[in-house]
Amino acid sequence: MAGETDNLLLDVRDLRTHFLTGAGGIPVVDGVSLSVRQGRTLAIVGETGCGKTVTALSILRLVPDPPGKIVGGQVLFSEQAGSPCVDLATAPDSVLRRIRGGRIAMIFQDPAACLNPVFTVGEQIAEAVRLHRGLRGRRAETLAVQMLERLGIADPGARARDYPHRLSGGMRQRVLIAMALACEPCVLIADEPTSALDTTIAAEIMALLGRMQAEKGMGILLITHDLGVAAQMADDVCVMYAGRIVEKAPAKELFARPMHPYTRGLLRSLPRPGHGGGRLAAIPGAIGDPAHQPPGCPFHPRCERTREPAALETRERVVMQDAEQPVTVLRRCIEPTSREPGGRPELREVRTDHSVACWEVAGDSAGAV
């Protein structure tokens, strides 16, 4: 990604998280590398089940163990750009407790499961402030009310005295956002932060995050399946599929020139002005079971480039008889190869700051593989 090394806050290197079962480890996060920089937003996009949330939980070591376990990689965190790093993947619990919720905050996807039903929402925000900012008594309570007001909650003083069950889903989501921002983190992990909000409120919340980022220099890791939100908020985008990043580029570059067949399929599925009436394009099939990924490229069962017209070219091809109907595909997309570790395409830079994990794209853009 573009950017100087001295503004790097979070550097994830080859992160691997497995869910351990009787049959062995199932790779759910399979070699993810990404960087979050000061004052910039990195978005991870992809369908439900591609590993976005588990990646975020792995960064803070919040994946339940068992069954989840980080089996490899580093999560290097600098509290200030250029300061010494701590590896969160191996750091002691005492270090994690200080960083989680304070220096790195997370907005979780399900507010109903994250708020304690026996405490008021004001008490829960104030508790985070007391723990991570050292404010006590009335000062912590006042800040909790102020954060609710900034998040657009009417009569914030009264709402601070409410219990979570008395709030709507959208209001609970804003309480979680208030709790995360109250501690002034240097890195914010936002997992579908607008999923429970209507369009108008969602736009206001994203604008608030943008303003706080500009004020504090906060780095944001945004996890979303909404490509519109990613296009609006992100400086850089990672596209994730089956536990791996398959395309990585600056946001403007990725949306203007998507290269991976999966990214192109996601963008074609969006409604467009002036194209009304017809059915939206859809990617066939679904993300497979992580315990039974196909050999070769994991996207090949759904990929248009392995089939006609690509299969009519002069390169070696094979007829798959076990599909619903016999189909001709490119052999190198479906058979393991010694050219790549694990027989899968690895990310390679095919344009400046634009990396893609696809043998076909690499062949088109960077010569023969």
Short précis:
This protein has about 375 residues and is an alpha/beta fold.
Describe, in plain words, how this protein is organized in 3D.
There is one protein chain. The chain has 369 residues and is α/β, with parallel strands linked by helices. The protein is 31% helix and 24% strand. The chain contains 13 helices and 14 strands. The protein has helices at residues 52-59, 93-99, 111-114, 121-133, 137-150, 156-160, 169-182, 199-216, 227-233, 251-256, 261-268, 331-334, 359-366, and strands spanning 8-21, 24-37, 41-45, 68-78, 85-87, 104-107, 187-191, 219-224, 236-241, 244-250, 317-320, 327-330, 348-351, 354-356. The chain has an 8-stranded mixed beta sheet, with helices on both faces. A hairpin with a 2-residue loop joins strand 9 and strand 10. Helix 5 packs across helix 7. The longest helix has 18 residues, at 199-216. The two termini are 23 Å apart. Mean pLDDT is 85; it is low at 364-369.
